[in-house]
Amino acid sequence: GLRTVRPHLYALEKLGVSIEALSDRYHVTHSKLHGAEIILHESSDTATENALFAASLIPETTTIKYASPNYQVQEVCGFLKALGVRIEGIGTTTLQVTGLAEAPRKNIDYSVAQDPTDAMFFIAAAIVTHSKLAITGVPIEFLEIELFILEKMGLIYSLSSPRVSENGITKLVDLHLEPSELTAFPEKIHPRPYPGLNIDNLPFFAVIATVAKGTTVIHDWVFEKRAIYYTELDRLGAHTILHDPHRISIEGPTNLKAAEIICPPALRPATILLVGMLAAKGRSVLRHVYSINRGYEEIVERLQAIGASISSSAE
């Protein structure tokens, strides 16, 4: 669906950048950049990051309000701090950035932390296949709402004591999942900016809903028309009712069945079809899986390692 770039433009304009939107391109000019107070009318991960990158080479203080404190933004802050940029408020919605006069010429080491959407894939896979599974190195602070909802639905799990990732920022735990009988969550499931339920994790609740007793209502208000793709689960035997381009009801539990499906051109909706196929009885075929491979490294090999009967081939 459509994705606005205006939060990016408005943020950069505050720093002294002039951006002209033409029919086929953007014309960007600036002279001397300056620090400023930036109000992000949309708590966008990448708009926050663009503002951070720009502010990091302005030797004045820039304040970014209503910033996204999501894990991607925290990673950018950690990397910029390693380069010498002073940043206060990491993990909050207000960031104060005091940049450098020029780009630093030094070598640094920085390790990106584990991915919560990667962990969510395996959480969903374990739930729909009624499997016992241990997932190590889960960035728990970015999955707490998801696990809270799943616990209320009946998921049985335990967590290890926390430790800190190699980046020095992210809190990690080991997650142990038990086979569980789920019931539908009594409220609609919807995303919010961090610390709410991650928009990238929301689609997994659609395939999880197929094995939960009762009716699950999912409100995907962020992305235009993405909820329509959730109806592709019907090809696996799911029972869905699309109320509008943003809202869908899913009735469960369902005995999913094998099918041959072409991936939709959206990463998470494509991925939940793969999760559903793991639980579907019989041999399924999923075609045009580029989007899944783009988002989940070596996913076939990792699924094979935990017992899935799955293979991939070039089309």
Could you characterize what this model shows?
By secondary structure, the chain is α+β, with helices and mostly antiparallel strands. The chain is built from 10 helices and 16 strands. The chain has helices at residues 6-14, 45-55, 71-82, 116-128, 144-153, 204-209, 226-229, 267-279, 290-295, 299-305; strands at 17-21, 26-30, 37-39, 61-65, 86-88, 94-98, 133-139, 156-159, 163-164, 171-178, 182-183, 212-219, 239-244, 247-252, 260-262, 285-287. The strands form 5 sheets. A 4-stranded mixed beta sheet has the order 3-4-6-5, with helices on one face. Strands 7, 8, 9 and 10 form a 4-stranded antiparallel beta sheet that branches. Strands 11-12-14-13 form a 4-stranded mixed beta sheet. β1 (17-21) and β2 form a beta hairpin. The longest helix has 13 residues, at 116-128. The chain is globular, with a radius of gyration of 21 Å.
Brief descriptors of the model:
globular; 10 helices; single chain; about 325 residues; four-stranded antiparallel beta sheet; four-stranded mixed beta sheet; alpha+beta; about 30% helix
